[in-house]
Amino acid sequence: MTSKSLFYNLLREDGKRRLWSMALSFLVFFFTFPVGIALSLSERMRGEIDLTYIISTLKSWLGFQNGWVAAVIILLSLIMGVTSFSYLHSRQKVDFYHGIPVNRKHLFWVNYFNGILIPAAIYGVNLIIAMGVIAVNGISPVEVWKTALSGFLLFMIHYCMMYSVTVISMILTGNVLVGILGNLVLQFYFVCVIGILEYCYSSFFYTSYRAGGNVFNRFMDKCSAFALFMVNLDLLQPGSPAGTKTVRILAVLAVTVVLTLLSFWLYKKRGSEAAGRAMAFKISMPVIRIPIVVLSSLGGSIFFWSMRSSVGWGIFGLICGMLLSHCVIEIIYHFEFRKLFCHWKQMGACALLAAVIFCGFRYDLFGYDGYIPSEASIESVAVSMSDVNYWVSYGSAKQNSLGEYYWEYQDSDEYIFNHMKLKDTAPVLALVRDAVDRNQKLHHGDDYSDTWDNGSISYNFSIKYTLKNSKNIYRTYHLSGDEVRPEIAEIFENQEFAKAVYPILLQAPEDTAWVRISRGEQTNVVSRDRNGTEKAMTDKLLLAYQEDLKNLKVETMEKEYPVATIQFLTKMQANAETKREEIQSSWKYSDVTSRGYYPVYPSFKNTLELLKECEVDVESWNSLDNVKEINIDAYQFNDYRSTYEDKGSQYLTITDEEQISQIMSFAAIDGYSNMNPFGGRGEERISFSAVTESGGRRSETSCTIPLNQLPDSVKNEINKIKKDV
Questions:
Q1: Which of 9, 213, 489, 713 is deepest in the core (most CB within 10 A)?
Q2: Strand partners of residue 599
Q3: HSE (CB half, 13 Å, CA atoms) of 70?
Q4: Quick check: 447 pLDDT over 60?
C-alpha cells in the first residue's frame, strides 16, 4: 500500500515539473482535434455536403492515417523523452534525486511512465471533447468512435517506441544537446546507411535489375523506430490484410518492450558522475564514432563522385567526410580542440574501410556485375526486351462491383518472367557474356565513361535466371552493334519466347468476341460475334493470326513493315465496347477497348486471305496508284528551336510519280514502324504525310521512312532545310 502511495506521489510531483510540456501537449491536441473538427464541420453548415463524405473525412482525421498527428507524436516523443531524464545531465539534480529516500528503480519507472501517461491522457481527453463537437453538429459519435479509438491506440504504441529511443539517448549521454543529437543518430544512422548503399548499388552495379529495386530498402523498417513508424503509417490502413496488421503491431510492441528494458538496464549501469560529460559510458564513444566516420567518409566520396565521376574527386570527398565527422565528434566528446586527432589511428582505419567499400562498388570487387551463372546450374531463363515490345498491352479487362470496366495493368517484365522458361540457354548466355565484357570495360575499368557506345543498334534486356536449386536471379544488360546479332534473331524466333512476349498467342477462341482491323485513321470491326452468327470467322482469324505471328522471322521483319494492326477483343472488352455504344460515349472505357492491337505484315498470308473474305480491301494497302502527293513537314528539322522568321512554305511537297513510288515502297505508316523491332533501328527517320485520292475523296496518312531510303534529290533538299534552320 505504501509502495503504491509513494509511486502515485512521485508521479504527481514529477507532473508538476512538467507543467510546461503538459500545457504544450494540450494546446497541440486541442487545436488538432476539437478545433480542427469544429472548423471542418462548420463548412458543412454553410453548404450541403454529403453525410457519407463528412464521416469519411472525420475518420481520416481521427484515424491512424492522419499525417499531422504522426508529426505531433514524433515531436512529443522527443520533448517528453528529454524532459523525463534531463535531470541526469545536471550534477546538482542528480545529487538531489539520488539523495532522496527513493529507490533508483522507482525513480526510473516514475519518470518513464509519466512521459507516456501525460500525452496519452491529454490525447484521450481531447478525443472525448472532439466527440462532443461532432455530436453538437448533428453527427452521431457512434459513426467514428471505433476509428478514433484504433487511431489513439496505434499512435500511442508507436509513441512509446519512439519515446523509448529518446530515453536511451538521454541515458547514454551527459548533456541535453548531445542527447538530442544522439537521438538523431539512433533514429537515422541506419536509414542513411541503407540510403547510401542503395545509391551505390544502383549507381555502380550496372547489371542490377531495375537499379536494384529494394535490395536494401526492405530492411529500412527493421533498423529504425522512425522508419518502422513511417512504413506502418502506410501499411496499417483500413483495408490492409489483418495478418499484416497483427504482425506489424506485435513487432512494434516487441521493439518497445526491448527498448524499455534496455533503457532500464543502462539506467542502472549509469554512474552519477556521468552528468555533464558528453557520453555517460566511455565504451560507447568509439562504438558511435567509428560507424559515423565510416559513413561520412563514404558519403563524401559518393557525393563528389556523383558530381564529376572522377576517382580523384572521390578521394577528396572521402578525406573531407573523414576529417569533418571525426573532428566534430571529438569536439563534442571532449569540448576542446586539442583532442581533434587524439584517435588518429581509428580515423585512418575508418577512411580505409570506407575506401574499400567505395572501391568494391566502383571496381566491382564483389564480382556482382561480372557474375554469370554456369550453364549447368541453370534450369531455364526468361528474357524481357521492353524497348522492343513496349507497345504490347499486358493485363486484362476487369469489371468491378459497381459494373464499371477497367484495365488491370500488369508489368511487362512480371508477365514475361512468369510465362517464359527457355531451355535453350546458349544464345542468351552468349549475349550475356559479351554484355558483361562490355560493361566491365566501360564502367569498371580505369577510364570511366558513361557515354561510350559501339554501334547504331542497341538492345536493353533483362533476364531472370531460374537455377536448379530453385533460386531466381535477375539482371539487366545492354548491347549495341551495327547489325542484328544472330543470337537475338535466334531468341526472337524461339516459340517459347514469342508465346511469353505476345499474350495474343495464348488467347483462346472461346474468350474472343470481336475482331477489329485498323489502318491509319480508319478502324473497322470485321468480325463481330452477334449471338454466334460470326463466331466461326472470329475463331478462324484468331487461329490464322496466331499461326502467322508464330512463324514470323527476323529476316522478314528486316524487309517489311506492318501495313495494318489487328485487335482480337476479349469478351470483357466487347462488353465494355457494347456498354459504351449504349451510353453513346466516345471516351468511356476507351482505355479498356483500345488495348491489344498487333501488327499485320504483308507476309501474313493466312490472315490477309481471311480479311479478304470479310470484305476488307487488302489489295489497296500496297497500292501506290492513289498516292498523289507527299508533304514533308520542315518543322521536324528545327531541332526544337522556336523562330518567328518567315522561311516560306512549311512543307517540302513531292508530286513526281517516280519519287512517290520510290518513297512509298520503303515507307511505313507512322506508329507501325515502332512495332517492328528490326526495321531500321538506329537510322534517322523522316516523317511525312501521304495524300491519297480515291472516289473523289482526299485523305492524308502519316508515314515515316529512313532518311537513307529517300531519293537523292529529296535528301539534298532536306539537307538545305537543315542548314537554314
A1: 489
A2: 565
A3: 17
A4: no
